[in-house]
Structure formats: C-alpha cells, structure tokens
C-alpha cells in the first residue's frame, strides 16, 4: 500500500544546530507540504512543492528551507534551530489540482533545548 | 483576514449519543471545505471534502453540511463510538487557480466519548 512516512518520529536538539526532518511518500504525488502544529494554533503551512525542483514559502517559512530533487521526498531543514521551533511537524502529499485530499504522515515531535 | 473558527473547543458525550460540531469561516476566495479527524499522536485523516455547490456529504456515521451563503459548516456524528474520541479539524481551501491552494486550518474540537 502507498504511504507517507516521516523520520525521525522524535528529535531533541540544541539551539543553533542544523536539523533535517525527512518525508517520503510512495503515492507518486506531485504536491507535498510541510506543516507545524502547536497548542492554541491550527496547523500552519511552512513550505510546499508542486513538483520536482519547485518549492514555495508558506505562512511560517522563516528559519526553514526545503528542496525537492525527486517526486518521493521533501526534506525540511531548520538552518539554526531555535526554541520557538519546538513543535510537531507534519508532512502531507496530494495529487495535483484542486479538491484532492491531502494525506498526512505520522508527524515528528521536535524539541529544541 | 482568512480565518476558520470552530466550536465548541471540547466536548464530552456518552457512547451511542449523537453530536454536532460547528465551523464558521471567513476565507476568500473559497474553493472547498474539509473535515479531518486527528487521533492523539497521529496525523490528520480526511473525512469529507465539499465544494461550494455541495451542501451535504456523508462518510459512514459522519455527515458534513455546508452553507456557503452564511459560511458555516457542521459535522454530525451519529451513534458515537469510543473510537470517535479525537480532534476534529475544519479546513478551508483557498482557490488558487486550479492548483491546490493554501489550506486554512481551524484549531479543532476535541471530542471525548465516554462509556
């Protein structure tokens, strides 16, 4: 069965370190998204991609970057981790075009100390 | 400002009872409205997606309604089960010229079903 996976599931890092969260999907979807989820907020879009070599900034992109070198993967990099980036991160993918559902990964809980 | 507001924030019901969750939105341009279920510690899972022309959509014991004129939606759960305990998130998609636009997420309603 097709799926979307994230790794690691839990990560503790120190302020100032670079961290990369992995997202891999086997749906062969063109669209991929990264969100963060914090108490008191709905999920917020960090970055998204409509295909290979395409990346776009979302609502809360400062301090994050992504790259899309193939269809299956969209890694999220925190260039210099900050305590404000402690959160649960979700990756999602969908087919191209409007109206298609997004399939979410299981999430990565990141703690920045 | 594009916003999605959900009520109540939390709800406790007894197993077997029905309940209705509310969603109001101020999102423009509107493309579609989605309801997701999120179990604790897991990613959201889609329940329904409705465009402005659809006013009711069902998925098993879940029935979503949409009134595009008043910008309101509801999710009705019939004959609740313990496994319905989760957060239910209302999401509105911005129209983005045919591509999948940004999704605006509500904060969710946390439902607890007690035996």
At a glance:
The complex is a heterodimer of chains A (113) and B (115). Helices cover 0% and strands 49% of the residues of chain A.
Can you put this structure into words, describing what you see?
The complex is a heterodimer of chains A (113) and B (115). Chain A is mostly beta strands. Helix content of chain A is 0%, strand content 49%. Chain A has no helices and eleven strands. In chain A, the strands form two sheets. In chain A, strands 2, 4, 5, 6, 9, 10 and 11 form a seven-stranded mixed beta sheet that branches. Chain A is globular, with a radius of gyration of 13 Å. Chain B is mainly beta and 115 residues long. Chain B is 0% helix and 64% strand. Chain B contains no helices and eleven strands. In chain B, the strands form two sheets. In chain B, strands 2, 4, 5, 9, 10 and 11 form a six-stranded mixed beta sheet that branches. A five-stranded antiparallel beta sheet of chain B has the order 1-3-8-7-6, with no helix packed on it. In chain B, strand 4 (30-38) and strand 5 (45-51) form a beta hairpin. Chain B is globular. The model of chain B has no long low-confidence stretch (mean pLDDT 93). Chains A and B meet through strand 5, strand 9 and strand 10 of A and strand 4, strand 5, strand 9 and strand 10 of B.
């Amino acid at each position: 069965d097709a799926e979307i996976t994230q790794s690691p599931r839990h990560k503790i890092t120190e302020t100032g370190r670079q961290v990369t969260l992995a997202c891999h999907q086997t749906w062969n979807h063109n669209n991929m998204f990264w969100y963060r989820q914090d108490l008191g907020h709905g999920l917020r879009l960090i970055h998204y991609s409509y295909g290979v070599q395409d990346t776009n900034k979302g609502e809360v992109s400062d301090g994050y970057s992504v790259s899309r070198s193939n269809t299956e993967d969209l890694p999220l990099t925190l260039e210099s981790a900050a305590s404000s980036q402690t959160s649960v991160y979700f990756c999602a993918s969908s087919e191209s075009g409007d109206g298609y559902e997004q399939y979410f990964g299981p999430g990565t809980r990141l703690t920045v100390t | 400002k594009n916003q999605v507001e959900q009520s109540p924030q939390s709800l406790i019901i007894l197993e077997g009872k029905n309940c209705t969750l509310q969603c109001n939105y101020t999102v423009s341009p509107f493309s579609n409205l989605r309801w997701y279920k999120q179990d604790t510690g897991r990613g959201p899972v889609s329940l329904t997606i409705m465009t402005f022309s659809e006013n009711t959509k069902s998925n098993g014991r879940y029935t979503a309604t949409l009134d595009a004129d008043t910008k309101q939606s509801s999710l009705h759960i019939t004959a609740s089960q313990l496994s319905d305990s989760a957060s239910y998130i209302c999401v509105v998609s911005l129209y983005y010229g045919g591509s999948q636009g940004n999704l605006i997420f509500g904060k969710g309603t946390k439902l607890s079903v007690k035996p």
